[in-house]
Design a protein that fits this description.
Layout (H helix, E strand, L loop, with lengths): L1 H16 L2 E4 L8 E4 L8 E6 L10 H15 L3 E4 L16 H7 L10 E4 L10 H5 L1 H6 L3 E3 L3 E4 L3 E6 L7 H4 L14 H18 L4 E6 L13 H6 L1 H6 L4 E4 L5 E5 L6 E5 L18 E5 L3 E7 L3 E8 L4 E8 L8
Parallel strand pairs: 2-7, 3-4, 4-5, 5-6, 8-9, 9-10, 10-12
Antiparallel strand pairs: 1-2, 3-14, 7-8, 11-12, 11-13, 14-15, 15-16
The structure holds 2-acetamido-2-deoxy-beta-D-glucopyranose.
The site of 2-acetamido-2-deoxy-beta-D-glucopyranose (NAG) has 7 residues, from loops.
């Protein structure tokens, strides 16, 4: 029974793939996917989840269930994962059962049978990184799209997914008892320099109305890990210079929304996919901290020509926080 059902899911996924085509890189170096919205007005919605793969434990299943309900209601077009996809140490290989136990067999709701755009978190780097990046994962479950860094073009919005783990010094200088798989990113200095250049040119060349950057690590956060100083120093100036609208991350196991007076960037943390409740919150300027929830849940975003609507949900599907912004900068049509 189960295998039959899996087979029909794979077929459904293959059909879905027909409208998500990989386009070879043109001017920018990052791989690019076109995800053309299906709604006539070009609007679309998606869910964001982070820090989730625990074989259903720590309310992962409950959160997945609510994602299915909210996803259906919002008619979502895709799902974004902010990384730490498989605890504790990523996948051990392409045949790791954790891929089924933590992903395939957990996010089973019909509304979640959409493309999943995934980045890697620091825990994913403790396993066989190449496994998560392998096209074999996509053959097993065609929802799975995971690259180190890439672009998703959804017409009115463009998403730049950034591999943030290699920026963090302490994983190199104090790995403790963890073994990180840095095989694909050496020499590190060149890798980071090229990545920053690629992100900058992708953002500069983008003509999308909304620019969104996704990474695993925080830039600004009041959670357990707090700000990631390497990203604040190296990546943030590029985001500011290119007037990025949203920076979306996980890493801190919470749901959080920070608006800073320095720029228009909204800092959105969706890291509540499973284990949470760490209880430690640092002080943050009250006028910048729009919302903080140290528990499990996820985020939804709806994007139209004029507006971005954000909502955060707990493990029961209750809306905890909502926020909207609009942009009315139209180029006058001749
Ligand atoms: C699961 O979620 C409920 C409701 O938010 C919470 O009270 C409980 O502590 C969570 N369980 C775990 C193991 O995190």
């Amino acid at each position: 029974m189960a295998s039959l059902w899996n087979k029909s899911m794979i077929i459904a996924n293959l059909i879905m793939l027909s409208w998500c085509v990989v386009v070879p890189p043109s001017t920018a170096e990052l791989p690019r996917f076109d995800h053309t919205p299906t709604k006539a007005d070009g609007s679309f919605s998606f869910l964001v989840i982070g820090d989730w793969g625990r074989k259903g434990g720590y309310n992962q299943t409950e959160v997945a269930y609510q994602m299915g309900i909210i996803g259906e209601k919002l008619e979502i077009d895709f799902i974004i994962s902010t990384g730490d996809n498989f605890y504790d140490d990523g996948l051990i290989g392409v045949d790791d059962d954790a891929f089924f136990e933590s992903f395939v067999n957990i996010y089973t709701a019909p509304a979640l049978q959409k493309q999943w755009y995934n980045v890697l978190g620091n825990h994913d780097y403790r396993g066989d990184v190449e496994a998560q990046l392998s096209p074999i994962m996509r053959e097993i479950d065609s929802r799975w799209v995971c690259l180190r860094s890439f672009i998703v073009n959804a017409e009115i919005a463009e998403f730049i997914f950034v591999d943030t783990t290699p920026f963090v010094d302490k994983y190199f200088t104090e790995p403790e008892d963890h073994v990180y798989d840095w095989s694909g990113i050496q020499p590190r200095h060149n890798y980071l320099a090229q990545l920053l250049k690629d992100v900058d040119s992708a953002l500069r060349e983008s003509t999308a109305k909304w620019k969104i950057v996704v990474g695993h690590h925080t830039i600004k956060s009041a959670g357990h890990h707090g700000n990631t100083k390497e990203l604040a120093r190296q990546l943030l100036p590029i985001l500011q210079a290119n007037e990025v609208d949203l920076y979306i991350n996980g890493h801190d196991h919470c749901l959080e929304h920070i608006s800073s007076s320095e720029s228009g960037i909204q800092y959105l943390t969706s890291g509540g996919g499973s284990k949470a409740w760490r209880g430690d919150v640092s002080w943050w300027k009250p006028n910048e901290m729009k919302f903080y929830y140290d528990g499990q849940g996820f985020m939804s975003i709806k994007i139209t020509q004029k507006e971005v609507d954000i909502a955060f949900y707990d493990a029961f599907g209750n809306v905890l926080h909502k926020w909207s912004t609009s942009k009315h900068l139209y180029v006058s049509a001749m």
